[in-house]
DUF58 domain-containing protein
Amino acid sequence: MATAPASFLDPAMLARISDLALLARTVVDGFMHGQHRSLRKGSSLDFAEHRSYQPGDDLRRIDWRVYGRTDRFYIKEYDADTNAGVIFALDASGSMDFGSGAVTKFDYARFLVASLAWLSKSQGDRIGLATFKEELVDVVPPSVRHLQLLLHTLARAKAAGPSRLVHSISRIGHLTTRTGIVVLVTDCYEQPEALGRAVAALRMGGHDVIVFHLVDPAEKQLPGDMPATFEDAESGALLPLRPGELRDKYNTLITAHHAALQERFTSAGADYVRLDTSEPLDRALHAYLDARLARSRVR
């Protein structure tokens, strides 16, 4: 599979672009330049299936050859008719403001959401956004016309304060009466069992769910060897630690946490993608495309 030039997808380079619309277009154009697969089964003009005529349907869509054989009216449906409603749910709590490298988790999350929204809009999807902390903060309802509003909302969003991740996920499921795709972007600092139940509830409501779990490189292995005081990004609590003495235990706990998240989300029927914020965005974009392709085949 061809890949985009790394310069189009590198977080350090993207951090120098202040305009999210330009950033999203740069990422998607660069990615699609090296991409040989469509987001769906084929182009928007590819025939998918027939369905019975319903009052109000466009008469130009009637398949008259089928009518001649069956004396019944059938409508031709195409892949573009399966366009979805996509809600991007972005964690804006204080822990997302951490970054040991060129970008914070929140910076990376905004780059990711902007790029996926641009990609979805190019396919004709209805796109919306919900940012959340303890409660939902900003909500952009899904619409084919809301790309610029979504990007503007992303640009002014700030990561700060405590979160109630499970509570917010349950609220997101009620933002639309139409089933669609929920793309959750978070650092998953919550009990895996509770997160799994919240995502399972979204799935029971008919939504497809893709979880992007963002991890800063320093979170994979407790940094430093000298005694240091660590501050909780959400509560402000201070904790004196000796990283060198705790590193093995920390590595065991963080590995177990990640494994439990994967097991819970997968069991709930969601797509789970863990992303290192120092890595280019191509893995996230490929994961999104793969999930959409799988769903379009089912539908």
